[in-house]
Specification:
Helix content: 10-25%
Oligomer: single chain
CATH topology: Thrombin, subunit H
CATH architecture: Beta Barrel
Number of strands: 6
Number of helices: 1
Distance between the termini: 27 Å
Shape: globular
Length: 108
């Protein structure tokens, strides 16, 4: 199979928290600063902006919270959990820096 994606994705598993409810909604399957794969037991409406926090945790608890807005563009509903491909909507420079730092740490 020929890879059609322009940006390489990195498998990094982060908790995804919905900002408005502070509820855990899933984990990232892979990520780059323009998009991510959300793995969740919930099915999300496509093309709707959802404010989230990505949380990384370490031995002493939560190490980092990255605020983002995601927008689902595709999902695979026939499997459980549901896989939703999301684009990251206008990430801040700080969010891009934090994501790139996580990718660097995960790649090394």
């Amino acid at each position: 199979m020929i890879e059609k994606r322009k940006l390489e994705r990195f498998n990094i598993y982060l908790d995804v928290i919905e900002q408005s409810t502070d509820n855990f909604i899933g984990i990232t399957g892979n990520i780059h600063h323009e998009g991510m794969l959300l793995i969740s037991l919930l099915e999300f409406a496509l093309f709707k902006d959802i404010p989230i926090l990505l949380e990384t945790s370490g031995a002493e608890g939560i190490e980092c919270k990255i605020p983002l807005v995601i927008n689902g563009i595709w999902n695979q509903k026939k499997i459980n959990p549901v896989h939703t491909r999301c684009r990251i909507v206008e990430p801040s420079p700080e969010a891009i820096h934090e994501i790139d730092k996580l990718i660097e740490e995960g790649a090394s």
